[in-house]
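Posted in: Structural Biology > Protein-Ligand Complexes

Title: Requesting predicted complex, adenosine-5'-triphosphate in pocket

I'd be grateful if someone could produce the 3D structure tokens for the following input. Sequence and ligand are given below.
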Amino acid sequence: MLRLRDVTAGYDGSVVLDHVYMDVPLGRVTAVLGRNGVGKTTLMKTIIGLIRPMSGVIEWEGEDITRWPPERRARAGIGYVPQGREIFSALTVEENILLGLEAQAEKVRPQPTLDEMYALFPILKEMRQRKGGDLSGGQQQQLAIARALAGRPKLLLLDEPMEGIQPSIVALIHDAIMKIAEEKQVGIILVEHNVELAFACADHFYIFDRGAVVAKGDVDGADLDHIQSFLAV
Ligand SMILES: Nc1ncnc2c1ncn2[C@@H]1O[C@H](COP(=O)(O)OP(=O)(O)OP(=O)(O)O)[C@@H](O)[C@H]1O
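-- Reply #1 --
Done. Output follows.
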């Protein structure tokens, strides 16, 4: 479980995240929703340790990690796929995944295999000798997720993975996200600004507005009109 307790964070003294409380369980998909610029990426950077909170506490599996540097958080099992899917374009698909395997978090978790990644994303097996940069946007997104997953995270942060991706591939990525949570018991934070896309695979949600949590709850039974009122531009 990842917990944020009264976390305030931002840039050079200007507050972006405003007294945020969040609980993110393992084995579930937690959606983080909000309009552009409300602080979703800042939240991701604060969780992975690129931004130090001005106040508040971040707990991971019962430990206070607020002052831990990013590498230590990654070793402890917190993985991140940034917006814009950063992969190595000059390396092949297989080399990209192998790099992820090498970067794997603490050895206490069983070593994942290439076959596991290919089972989740079959297109990557077909494309394994192609250069990452030659893949389509949707294929690159699958590769970015596979690479992060190869590091065997217990928590995986996905920043707008469906952005600019064609609908047929969106469904594939949804399925993979749900499988990763259920079968591998990984906690997933899914950043999204489209509520339908997020709710198609999330269990819980948090809505942000101007850096603060303005609504949260279970996806089942959520009041969509109320939620949309925070997301309408
Ligand atoms: N490096 C930075 N220095 C100063 N301010 C920043 C920096 N990065 C982001 N901000 C500001 O922080 C606020 C939140 O930005 P953030 O990128 O976290 O929002 P977001 O919800 O992820 O937006 P989007 O959906 O457009 O990606 C914005 O006002 C933005 O201008």
